[in-house]
Design a protein that fits this description.
By secondary structure, this protein is α/β, with parallel strands linked by helices. The protein is built from 13 helices and 9 strands. The structure holds iron/sulfur cluster (3 copies).
Length: 329
Amino acid sequence: MKQKPKLAVYWAASCGGCEIAVVNLHEKLLDVDAAMDFMFCPCLMDTKKKDIESLPDRAIAITLFNGALRTEENIEMAHLMRKKSQLLVAFGSCAKGGCIPALANFTKNNELLHSIYIDNHSVDNPAGIIPSGTTAFPEGDMQLTPLLERVKHLAQEVEVDYYIPGCPPEPHQIWNVIETFLAGELPSKGSTIGCGTLTVCDDCDRTKEEKRITAFRRNYEFYPEPEVCLLEQGLLCMGIATRNGCGAPCTKANMPCTGCYGAPEGVGDQGAKMVAALGSVMDIGDTAGLSEEVISERVNAFLTTIPDYSGLFYKYTLASSILGGRVGR
Ligand code: SF4
Ligand code: SF4
Ligand code: SF4
């Protein structure tokens, strides 16, 4: 009997949401199973690492690799899956741009661990223990893999064939990609697939009137008009600096786009694109005759209405951004 091509879904520093997106293929999973041998997915099945190590090189047709690279174990698995796969796909925003795990690059590991295990009101840790190294249990020793100094995205460690954006990728787009692969219609290597080439604004039905805004508001402060552009209502909607393809589910639900599909085609840095876009909607009043100092004060007053702009603008792409993380590390 002819063997089906092997499909693997691996998670590194991941929340599990990308696996849920695969499960959300629903009945299409039966089509995937009919066409492919879904043989490795630590979240769903019990295939062991040694089973993968024993495969010949390139034995797996496609690996959808999700999660950022946060630990030495993540690095080891990235190399193993690269070696054993014909196509390695950075699946989801963590693997593509670092996403939430990479926000750790704004701080240092010791500061981060301290805030999690010591300086944390919801943790009872009188001995001030920060988990690390090897701990003996009756069942055997347990070893925690060391953290990397900086969180990386997949392509910063191994060669990546394709990128699928999204936090997580939308199931209809995952299916589009699988159908394309199964049909043997491989896009050019290095492409970002399962998405569009424009922006979320291009898919959003809300009306834009090129209004300027004097301050930003938070989602909980008011109920936005359901048909008017959220950015023009003072909500920080990233649609203007975000690749389309998701179908704009967030703005349809009256919530701003947070930018999970990353930068649009041809844009290198999503956060920088958003900063430039904000310049066109920011209203600081008539500046004629004002000194640079007063203009600067007005701009700063406007910016204080944006909470945590580095965390907002680089939530999904910090590891792949020009900024990269905290300056001077
Ligand atoms: S891309 Fe989003 S859904 Fe997928 S693992 Fe990362 S945080 Fe979770
Ligand atoms: S900024 Fe947001 S709400 Fe406005 S058109 Fe773009 S995606 Fe829609
Ligand atoms: S609207 Fe924005 S945040 Fe929502 S799924 Fe699409 S890209 Fe992601």
